[in-house]
Amino acid sequence: QVYVVFSEELKCWCRALVQSVWCQADGYQLSCFLVDYAKYCCVPSKSIRVLPGAFAKIPHRAKKCRLHCTKPLTLHIDYCENTAKIGPAKRWDAAAIQHFRKLLE
């Protein structure tokens, strides 16, 4: 379900999908995906509202997607043998993500 959350970063109300909820000392925090900005953010529970029916029917501008058959790689360095090889990784590293975003721009 799509909700409306107030993004402190963007200084506006945005449509969002709630990813997870966790409890903190001062209340609940929500991890959200902003469907019109393709950004993730965390907001307090007091900053979430139910989306009015007419606005829920507007299509999202951003969609979560994956690159087909593209797996993350990383550079494995062996200091003992003084070699470096590219091999599979569990996650994309920050440099690869930054490079990909520059290519998209």
Describe the overall structure.
It is an enzyme of class 3 (hydrolase). This is RNA helicase. Its EC number is 3.6.4.13. The chain is mainly beta. It folds into two domains: 2-55; 73-103, no CATH class. Helix content is 14%, strand content 46%. It has two helices and seven strands, in the order βββββαββα. It has helices at 53-56, 94-104, and strands at 2-7, 12-24, 27-34, 39-44, 48-50, 73-78, 83-88. It has a five-stranded antiparallel β-sheet, with no helix packed on it. The protein has a two-stranded antiparallel ribbon with strand order 6-7. The longest helix is centred in the C-terminal third of the chain and has 11 residues, at 94-104. The mean pLDDT is 86.
